[in-house]
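Box 3.1. Reading complex inputs
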Amino acid sequence: MSAVLETSALAKRYGRRWALSDCTLKIPPGLVVGLVGPNGAGKTTLLHLAVGLLAPTSGAITVLGDRPAKGATQLGRVGFVAQDTPLYAGLSVADHLHFGAWLNLGWDERLAQRRIEQIGLDPRQGVRELSGGQRAQLALTLAVAKRPELLILDEPLSSLDPLARREFLQNLMESVAEHQLSVVLSSHLVSDLERVCDYLIVLVSSHVQVAGEIEGLLASHHRLTGPRRDLGTLPGSQEIIEATHTDRQSTLIVRTDQPILDPSWTVEQIGLEDLVLAYMGRAASIRGSRPAFLRVQP
Amino acid sequence: MIEFHLDTRSGVAPYLQVVHQVRQALRLGLLREGDQLPTVKDVVARLAINPNTVLKAYRELEHDGLVAARPGIGTFVTKTLSDASLAAHAGLRRELLRWFANARRAGLDDESIEALFRDCLRSASGEEVA
Amino acid sequence: MIRLTAREFRTQAIVALGALVIAAIVLAITGARLTHLYNTTVANCKMNGDCSTATSLFLSTDSGVQGTLDFLMIVIPGLIGIFWGAPLLARELETGTYRLAWTQSVTRARWLAVKIGIVGVSSLLATGLLSLMVTWWFGPLDRVNMSIFGSFDQRSIVPIGYAAFAFALGVTCGALLRRTLPAMATTLVGFVAVRLVIFAAVRPNLMAPLHRTVINTVIAHPTFTPDQGTLPANAWVLSDQTINAAGNVIGQNGSINGGTILSPGATGLTIQGVGTCPGIAPPTPGTGGVGPALQTCVDNLHIRDVLTYQPSGRYWPFQVYELAIFLTLALILVGLCFWWVRRRII
């Protein structure tokens, strides 16, 4: 099974700042991948590397088996919607469809027209008159109507109100179902992604913290609550992601595939948002911006 | 044709919610033998969830023998659950009510009863326990 | 991609075409009139006697149009650079639409090639057409004026080179600065600077200039204009230096640095840095001087004028060389842009 996106120690530096470091991923096809992380974590950098808008400083990246933006064919297999959905302000909706048709060999005009109708856009409308949700839908149409195999979306939901967000995701999922697309979409909110993603990448401070199928991640991460104890007393096969202590109680978030046999722990499932927050917290404390593992609750 | 809904707060995996809703519809007679389930495309267009979720749900229903997928046409109900209606388990029902009365007499409140119930259900299903 | 660029460029192309058509009409009408005037007055002026009046009258015809055309020819290449070149990359980078344009099914190199090709070629064609019309229109006037090097920048083929360079410079500034207004400003400044450098330092030396030594007549006849009349017509005089017997430069344009000084007592004329002409009363301003006697003294003192010039025959070679220089600069800049775009440095 060939990966849709594969990176190997991929890194990108601007001047002295590393926007992306040591990123190694292998994303299987047929999934909706959520790329989540705080602002400035490197999500846009990774996505721009994937569509060939940036060249790596070191490491390698292949998309659909080829170097990104290698040629017209490779470009045609990947659809991209950039952050804030850039469109040509002076042009109309119909102009943008022409744009898509003239620049893409695989352009499906009927599909584009159908989608425009479905969204409820008037082709003669200028892009300036469109709402944020409509712009996002138009940009998605441009990306989908070229019949790609992979869709990459950079924070498509960030500036949308909840209704527009829902409509966008409905539209996106419908396209995924209809055309068997693979999708990579980024967000800084986990709640956006929970509904639609089946694979998660958490990116914090230019490093990948965790990556995997969501079902597997939820199955292998647990919240342990129990009487207060030293961390040194836990079996080594468990990776502690986050630990908080009060005077009486310890709460851990661990990653393990083994069953937890110590009966003094209460083991619970953990939600996706808490999982992501735990990894973000760990990254923050590694970076030194917070004392490690010492959040004392009142 | 039935319509699905998703409760993001319930803690139940989305695909299981779909499975439950199909089973519920079968029990209540809203779905009968030969009826077509909504297409994956229609479901995700309404719910904005991952198509794989719906596929997984339909596969599980197919595995349970309740539906069958006809490639290129759709997924159709093959068996109803109305026979397995709750009324058929009157015996189990009585036993459960008796147990609840016992638990109350032992001093358990509703939440404790529920916690105990879930715990036993989990261990009975063979899932991991601390 | 071609269709898209044509569509995007449509408005500008129409404006340019419209302007060219208007220019063509105006020039056709006034130009015909000008030619007719030339044929009836100046062409026959020698027969009728008074050439200088006929000539000066002719040269001042349609002076408004003359001034406008000369101005346009200077300004248009720069405008092309600013309005057609600078926004090409800058606008896409500034508005972020490059993230849309470069993720369709067209590689960046092809995208840039078509854009530069269509807009660039249009610039060259427009400038070439305009220059053709203007050069034709000025034909009779330039024939009378006899200073083809004076209007070198505004005729024939060099404006095409200027337009190509300005356009390429505009695109490059857009790529480097990534914002439209700064790119436009930088293009203007850069274009003017390069033009000035080439005009002042390169053009005079495109081929080694010729020299001619002539008699100095200005000292003896102050009202005479510096004697360049011995040169063939339309020569481009780069310098006119007065030298003494030893060959040192003692003045410009026929005069002496420091002037000539009348000795007290009217015993003679001292020529600074050279010597004296005894027994000569000073030349009286306005009366034409003491003529032959002073002239003989000047000649005896071996005061001469050295003219450094480019002959008129070199006009066309110079046009070609300067065109080649600007086209080469344009090609280098375009190559640079391609390299940046392909290496994803932009």
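In summary: The two ends of chain A are 51 Å apart (CA to CA).
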